[in-house]
Specification:
The complex is a heterodimer of chains A (304) and B (256). By secondary structure, chain A is mostly helical. Helix content of chain A is 70%, strand content 7%. Chain A contains ten helices and five strands, in the order ββαααααββαααααβ. In chain A, helix 4 packs parallel to helix 8 and helix 7 crosses helix 8. In chain A, strands 1-2 form a two-stranded antiparallel ribbon. In chain A, strands 3-4 form a two-stranded antiparallel ribbon. Chain B has 256 residues and is of the alpha+beta class. Chain B is 32% helix and 38% strand. Chain B contains six helices and twelve strands. In chain B, strands 1-3-10-9-7-4-11-12-2 form a nine-stranded mixed beta sheet. A three-stranded antiparallel beta sheet of chain B has the order 5-6-8, with no helix packed on it. Classes of the chains: A mainly alpha (304), B alpha+beta (256). At the A-B interface, strand 1, helix 3, helix 5, helix 8 and helix 9 of A face strand 5, strand 6, helix 4, helix 5 and helix 6 of B.
Chain lengths: 304, 256
């Protein structure tokens, strides 16, 4: 059964949309990631206009982050103060991101910027994760290996406006999470992701937050950043496809349950290694698309 | 006497008119099985039956042109810059048909000459395509570049909106004709122009037109209008919907 998506203005088979949501939902349940970095490129590959894919995915991430954060809140794994600072930065950054997005769309370079951002960030993150999980697997085989320190202070922590974050056991400058939030916010708006895959490593390695509160706090601030993107894209570009988001969500909710169950079958470092390989695959696919001469050098777009 | 004269004159006129009609020009009328198509949630393209009657002779041909509401189309050209393929040039085609398809009883070359088609404005090469460069040169007419037009025809055909192939028109007894007009899933809403011509010996001897109205309907129209007319409210609604369904999902998940 085909369904006509009113904003994307294309007709798609309903099984493809729900299946896509289910598949990405499964992986996000398995790896504990949002899955936006997979969903947005896949929607674009399937012919959804990039602008609609990015804005709609932001809307869907609001829902998946809400359902994810509730479990973390029950366990007290959300640092609301840190999350608050991050989301202030995130709202500023994502607002700038939507403006940049609108501008790039007008000059016809949005596809390029979306793809380049994916190649760069997925490449870096995938490579680092692969390295880290390989090291972790090695470490489990060498029982006498030295443990890392909880966190180290660097000059960034000493910037002005120092603040105490009790839940994260940190006393650092508020400018640092503000800046990180803003940077990830820009990316979230342009790439149609929650940005957890950048936020989480940044929280661990740059802020030095304890890993127990990292995922919950990241999800907490993603809700507000993606809600902001949803709102601004609705107002500025009218590219949020409510029907597409709803159907993807339906699949994702079911898929995530199976994914969470499957995740107990694998060890943490193995999961991270697999995720890294998947991230790198998407990265390489996009890089090839940019580097290989396209069959048709010309493309058209109906302007309204 | 005066009365009889009038009758004879009338009869003569009548004979003269019908004689003229059969000798030089035919007559053609066209209609569609549906003149309103609504794009609802289940829409996945549709076929319309086009039919009509013609006062034809042996060897007459019928040609049908369907053209969609004019729209601006941005055409971009990629080139290799520093190892990656990026859009380096944009041309805006102004007010070109968003759908264009030609259907006929015969191959075009056997119906008429390219000159006649150009004169009648039939075929995508004859609809006055003009390129507007991104930075227009003052005092100069917009250029018409042949390879851009060829690329446009290919691009539009790839997204099913223009057709490079000639569809089939079936003519029976030189009097009745019918054809299937294919409307792809990605058609633009608006008024479509359907033009039907009767050709005899390479000359168009009669013509008829009709309109086709395509509009969004049902739930999909509701969502589209909501998103465009009350976009801030739509954004808030989309967020609330997402928050509610996320909450619901978590609740269901927890119970299991």
């Amino acid at each position: 059964m085909y369904i006509y998506l009113p904003i994307a203005e294309i007709s798609m088979h309903i099984a493809i949309i729900i299946g896509l949501g289910g598949g990405v939902g499964f992986l996000s349940g398995l790896f504990g990631v949002g899955g936006g970095f997979l969903m947005t490129p896949l929607l674009i590959f399937l012919g959804v206009p990039p602008a609609v894919a990015v804005a709609t995915e932001a809307n869907q991430i609001v829902a998946s982050s809400v359902s994810g954060v509730l479990a973390h809140m029950r366990r007290g794994n959300v640092d609301f103060k840190m999350g608050g600072i991050l989301l202030i930065g995130g709202v500023i950054g994502s607002s700038l991101g939507v403006m940049l997005f609108t501008f790039l769309r007008e000059v016809g370079q949005i596809d390029l910027v979306i793809k380049l951002s994916y190649v760069v960030f997925l490449g870096i993150i995938g490579f680092l994760m692969l390295l880290e999980s390989a090291r972790a697997i090695m470490r489990t085989r060498q029982p006498g290996a030295r443990r890392r320190k909880l966190h180290q202070h660097n000059w960034l922590h000493g910037l002005p406006l120092k603040m105490r974050f009790r839940r994260s056991k940190l006393y650092i400058s508020a400018l640092l999470p503000l800046g990180i939030g803003a940077f990830v916010g820009v990316l979230a708006a342009i790439m149609g992701v929650g940005g957890g895959f950048i936020m989480v490593p940044a929280m661990i390695y740059l802020l030095g937050m304890p890993t127990s509160v990292v995922v919950g706090t990241s999800l907490f601030q993603i809700i507000f950043v993606t809600a902001n993107v949803t709102f601004l894209q609705s107002v500025q570009t009218q590219t949020v496809d409510f029907m597409l988001a709803g159907l993807l969500l339906l699949g994702a909710v079911i898929g995530a349950q199976f994914g969470t169950r499957a995740s107990v079958l694998l060890r943490g470092e193995q999961l991270r290694g697999l995720l890294a390989l998947m991230v790198l695959t998407v990265c390489i696919k996009l890089a090839f698309d940019l580097a290989i001469r396209p069959d048709d050098l010309f493309s058209v777009e109906l302007v309204k | 006497m005066i009365y009889a004269h009038r009758v004879i004159l009338g009869l003569l006129l009548l004979i003269g008119m019908t004689g003229f009609a059969t000798a030089d020009s035919g007559r053609i009328v066209v209609d569609l099985s549906k003149s309103n198509v609504s794009i609802t949630s289940g829409f996945h393209g549709t076929d319309l039956l086009l039919f009509g009657a013609v006062d034809g002779d042996i060897g007459d041909d019928i040609l049908v042109v369907v053209s969609g509401p004019p729209t601006d189309v941005a055409q971009r050209r990629k080139a290799n810059r520093a190892g990656i393929w990026i859009n380096v040039e944009t041309n805006i085609w102004q007010q070109i048909p968003s759908l264009y398809s030609v259907l006929a009883t015969n191959q075009i070359e056997q119906i008429t000459s390219p000159e006649v088609l150009a004169e009648l404005g039939i075929g995508t090469q004859n609809i006055g395509l003009k390129i507007v460069p991104e930075t227009p040169i003052p005092g100069q007419a917009p250029p018409i570049a042949a390879d851009f037009i060829a690329a446009l025809q290919t691009n539009m055909a790839n997204i099913d909106l223009w057709s490079n192939e000639i569809g089939k028109v079936k003519l029976t007894q030189n009097a009745l004709f019918r054809a299937e007009v294919k409307l792809p899933a990605n058609i633009v809403s608006g008024t479509y122009d359907v033009r039907v011509l009767q050709f005899r010996n390479g000359v168009a001897i009669s013509e008829d037109r009709t309109n086709l109205y395509i509009e969004k309907g049902g739930l999909s129209a509701g969502i589209y209008n909501f998103a465009h007319d009350y976009s801030a409210l739509y954004g808030i609604f989309a967020i609330l919907f997402a928050v509610a369904s996320g909450w619901l999902a978590a609740a269901v998940f927890r119970r299991k």
